[in-house]
Specification:
Layout (H helix, E strand, L loop, with lengths): L2 H9 L8 H13 L7 E7 L2 E8 L5 E9 L13 E3 L2 E3 L7 H16 L6 E6 L7 H9 L4 E7 L8 E6 L1 E10 L14 H15 L17 E9 L9 E10 L5 H11 L4 E7 L4 E2 L5 H14 L4 E5 L6 H4 L4 E5 L3 E2 L7 E3 H18 L3
Parallel strand pairs: 3-6, 3-7, 7-15, 8-14
Antiparallel strand pairs: 1-2, 2-6, 4-5, 5-17, 8-13, 8-15, 9-11, 9-12, 10-11, 16-17
Amino acid sequence: MKVIDIAQNLMKFRTETGNLPEIKKCLEYAQSLFKDYPAKGGIYEFPDASPVLFLANTITNDYDVVCLGHLDVVPAADDMFSPYIKDGKLFGRGSLDMKSFAAVALNSLEHVLKNNLPLKFAVILSTDEEKGSKSTHAFMEAHPDLKAKIVLDNDVGGDILKIVSKCKNPVFVKITAKGEAAHGSTPWDGIDSNELLMQTLANIRKIYPYYSKGGNQPQDQWIDTVHVAIMNGGEVSNIIASESEAVLDFRLTENSTAENLKKNLDSCMVSGVTYKISSESTPVVMDETNPYILDYKKFAEQILGKEIEFEHIGGATDSRAFAVRGSTVIMHSGTGEGMHAPGEYVEVDSVEKIADIQLKFLDKLAGK
C-alpha cells in the first residue's frame, strides 16, 4: 500500500463534519482497500451519531493494538480538496489533520494481515471528531468491554520529533444571563443581560487569566486555560438585551477536576446568571517510562536518526476513550503546519517515516 497515494485519495472526499454522503463514500473507499484481505468489521452506523469504520484482523474485546483516528475535516475551499505535492509537502485539507495518518493506520492493518502477524489488531476511524466525537462515544458505548493494550494515536500533528505524553481535559461550559428588556434610551428601566454576562466573565478572568499572542503569556504553559468560544446577546440595537449566553472552552490539566471548576464557577456567577457544563472528559496522561512507549521511541529515533522529546499539549484526543480503560496511548504524528487553515500541509517524508515506525513497532510486538 502506497501511503501517500492513499492519503491523497482520502483527501479528495469532501468529508467536512456532517457531510454524510461524502463521509460514507470515503468510508466505503477505505473499506474497499481490503477486499483481497480477510479483514473483519465494517462500517458501523448509529441513530444519533455519524458512522465509524472499524476494521480488524479478528473480532475480540481485547486487542493488542488499536490505531485510532478520524476521517472528517473542518470546512475548506473547493481547491483544498484537490491535494497536491510540492517541495516535499502534501497540501490540502486533511493532509495534517489527519487523513495522511488515517492512511498510515490502514497501511498498518494491511501489514498485519499480509504478514499474518500474531497480534490482535484493529483500526477505528470516526467521522465527527472535529465537532465533539459523538461517533467515537457511540462506538465505545456499543462496545463497553472493548479494550486495547496499546493505542497508536496519530492525531497530534505538528512535529515528528516529539511524542505527546499529556493532553488536557476539555470542558465546555454554557453560561446564560437573564435580564429585563427596556428601551435603549432608558437603561434604568431594564436589566442588561449583556452586562451581567460581561461581569461574570470578568470574574472568571480573575481565576483564569486571558492569554494572547503578543500579549500576556504564561511562564508555564501546562496550566488550566479558558477561551470564550461563542458569545451573543440582544436582537436589535435600541433594546436592552434580556438574554445573553456564552460558551466557554476550558482546558484542564490532570491536576484539576471538574468539581473544582464548578466551585470556581459558582463563585463567579452574578445575580441572574447561571451555567451548565455541556461536556467534560478526562486528560490523557502517560508515564514517560512506560516500556511500550520507550520501545516505540527507540524505533522512532533509529529510523529518524535524531532524538525525540516528550511534550504536553492543550488539545484533546479521542484516545481518552481508551486511556480510561487502561490502554497505553502512544501519541505521535508527522510534521506539518496550517491545521484548520488555508495552507494546511504535511511533510511527505514524515508521513512515510511514521508508517515505517509503526510497522517496525508492530513487528517487535509480534516477536519478529
